[in-house]
Design brief:
mainly alpha
Length: 104
């Protein structure tokens, strides 16, 4: 992964150490179901619908403990989604974020 992948300000405040720990967990347990990727704010705003859906589903539903998104982070994602010109086409994704467990 390149250095920008570890930019804590661009990755919703997830520290580099957490990203590295998540990568180690995925490798250690060889669990290919887990995703250790946190999207950037730019990706949330600019990715096509298909890529965005896959990326957010992986982060929200398949993250190891070290990078599970908080309610605050999910609220930030929702705010970014609202800025997209295709917001009305993202109903399923927006609903998933709105129903994300709030006490993680």
């Amino acid at each position: 992964m390149n250095q920008s992948h570890y930019d804590v300000h661009d990755r919703f405040g997830v520290p580099k150490e957490n990203l590295l720990a998540a990568e180690r967990a995925v490798q250690k347990y060889r669990n290919l179901e887990l995703s250790c990727y946190v999207p950037s704010r730019k990706e949330i705003v600019e990715s096509d619908k298909s890529t965005l859906t896959a990326t957010l589903t992986d982060w929200l539903c398949k993250s190891p403990l070290e990078i599970i998104p908080s309610s605050f982070q999910v609220d930030q994602v929702l705010a970014l989604l609202a800025q997209r010109t295709d917001y009305h086409e993202l109903k399923t994704l927006v609903t998933m974020c709105q129903h994300y467990p709030r006490h993680r």
